[in-house]
Amino acid sequence: MFNKIIFYFKISTTFLRKYTIISDQLVQWEEARVICNANHHGLASISNENEQQALEESVAASGVASDLWIGGFRLIADPTWKWARTGGNISWTRWAPLQPDGNGLCMQLTYSYLWDDDSCIDFKPFICNV
Questions:
Q1: 4-129 has which fold?
Q2: Could you give the CA distance from residue 39 to residue 102 in angstroms, rounded to a whole number?
Q3: Is 49 helix (H, G, I), strand (E, B) or coil?
Q4: Where does the C-type lectin domain lie (predicted)?
């Protein structure tokens, strides 16, 4: 079974968000998406600065010091980035400088907590919405 680190945090006074960081399984992006969809509520999606900050704090507290898959993706013929969980376009972003650079079709949260496009076939730990 997976090693899960679960974090709860408040985004506002009425909304509580929860993520699970799967740190002991290194998988490709599609497998991470399947696992998160089957056991949680999809790969992590981040829609504003508060969610980004809370996720950064959660990852830092977990002790995981590597890049992690999150739920952003794009199709080869479409430059628009979307969230896998909803299929909706990504409107708020936290890309690393000079990113996305066309290096990949899947999104990772880097060890410095910025977003980067990467090859979907790389193996990484991942973050699920719960």
A1: Mannose-Binding Protein A; Chain A (3.10.100)
A2: 30
A3: helix
A4: 19-129
Extents of the domains making up the chain: 4-129
Residue found under tokens 């509520």: 41
CB 5 within 8 A of CB 60: no
According to DSSP, the residues that pair with 109 across neighbouring strands are: 68, 115
Place of tokens 């909803």: 86
Residue with tokens 């399984």: 25
State the 10-residue block means of pLDDT for the chain, 130 residues long.
46 55 93 93 92 87 92 95 96 97 96 97 93
User: How do beta strands 124-129 and 16-27 pair?
Assistant: antiparallel
Nearest to 129 by CA among 49, 63, 64, 32: 32
